């Protein structure tokens, strides 16, 4: 092979690698919203069980999320630590709550979210048996479907 052809192959390979690493389109507002609300609801049910609260279900929580990346001038796509999801739900007392969750969305279709302690409680809880346990909704991670 001549040197010109090798340079062309190297450039093509570099471009392919660069484009493959730019899976920014996989992280979207809709995908994140569809993933974070049910994950939060399931973990909130676990929190209620730890505290010995009955009657708290995913259905009674009715969680819904609205996510935004970096404000109105930033497109709502791509991985990054600058996603904010507003979570709307009913708490364990049946009261409507709205809270801002800071979200780090990653290019591997996973995320880490943390909410305000005034809504979800502290990092550690005292369960119904008097033990100190981690609060499952204080900070949580999850995954979203990058294909839907």
Summarize the structure.
With about 150 residues, the chain is of the alpha+beta class.
Keywords:
disordered N terminus; 4 helices; two-stranded antiparallel sheet; elongated; alpha+beta; 148 residues
Task: Describe the protein in words.
Strands 1-2-3-4-7 form a five-stranded antiparallel beta sheet, with helices on one face. Strands 5-6 form a two-stranded antiparallel ribbon. With about 150 residues, the protein is an alpha+beta fold. It has one domain. A hairpin with a 5-residue loop joins strand 2 and strand 3 (about 95-105). Helices cover about 30% and strands about 30% of the residues. The protein has helices spanning about 5-20, 30-50, 60, 115-120; strands spanning about 65-70, 80-90, 95-105, 110-115, 125, 130-135, 140-145. The protein contains four helices and seven strands.
Helical fraction equals: 25-40%
Tally the helices: 4
| Largest sheet: spatial strand order | 1-2-3-4-7
| Overall outline | elongated
Mean pLDDT: 85
CA-atom Rg in angstroms: 20 Å
Structural class given helices, strands, pairing?
A: alpha+beta
Distance between the termini: 43 Å
**Helices and strands, in N-to-C order?**
HHHEEEEHEEE
- Let me know the number of strands: 7
- Unreliable stretches covering 5 or more consecutive residues: 2-24
Task: Characterize the main sheet.
Answer: 5 strands, antiparallel
Please indicate the count of domains: 1
| Percent of sequence in beta strands | 25-35%
